[in-house]
Write a structure and sequence with these properties.
The protein has about 180 residues and is of the alpha+beta class. Helices cover about 60% and strands about 10% of the residues. The chain is built from 5 helices and 5 strands; from the N terminus they run αββββααβαα. It has a 5-stranded antiparallel β-sheet with strand order 4-3-2-1-5. A hairpin with a 2-residue loop joins β3 and β4. It is elongated and about 75 Å long.
């Protein structure tokens, strides 16, 4: 009849896939050459995590942000977060896709929450300190910065799932009896 709840066996494949998307989002945010900050209409100033460019038309002068300690800290934190995220992804593939190892799921959840804290700090430091460099005008934090936040939000959701999934071991393995909302008499 009608089945209620989550299809837990699908979580074995969907959650690692979400982590893969978080990795891709992080790589896009880290590797972007522009798209973290732009002035209004991107006419005279834009920046990435690594550098900022000032100019007009085709005459741009780019300077590295790595001369600032805060920018080095942001880059280091984002890269460390990406490395921990990749480790969590590999462990999740081993724990959920190859074999079902329930005891690894909370470990993955903790790794993801560590990633969230690290990337949250980096994504807050960047706009606060970058705004100290800006003296006038209106600036927008754009697509690459948004990918960094997207990866962080995915890590929050997956971390919660990995911490909750051990309670549903029978459902994950397919051994639980199906519960129906409606049964006929």
């Amino acid at each position: 009849m009608f089945r209620c709840g989550i299809a837990y066996p699908r979580c074995r494949w969907i959650v690692p896939l979400l982590l893969l998307f978080a990795i891709i989002f992080d790589i896009i945010a880290i590797a972007a050459t522009s798209g973290w900050v732009e002035d209004k209409d991107a006419k005279s100033h834009y920046a990435s995590m690594w550098s900022q460019c000032l100019g007009r038309n085709d005459n741009w002068e780019c300077k590295s942000l790595m001369e600032f300690s805060w920018a080095q800290a942001v880059a280091a934190l984002m890269i460390i977060g990406l490395i921990i995220l990749i480790i969590a992804f590999i462990i999740s593939c081993i724990a959920l896709c190859c074999t079902l190892n329930i005891s690894l799921l909370p470990v993955i959840g903790v790794l993801l929450f560590i990633t969230v804290v690290i990337q949250f700090i980096a994504l807050i430091i960047y706009p606060v300190r970058f705004n100290d460099l800006i003296f006038e005008g209106r600036y927008d934090y754009t697509w690459a910065y948004g990918f960094g936040w997207g990866a962080t939000i995915l890590c929050i959701g997956c971390g919660i799932l990995f911490c909750c999934l051990p309670r549903y071991e029978d459902e994950l393995t397919g051994l639980a009896k199906t519960k129906y909302i409606y049964t006929s008499a």
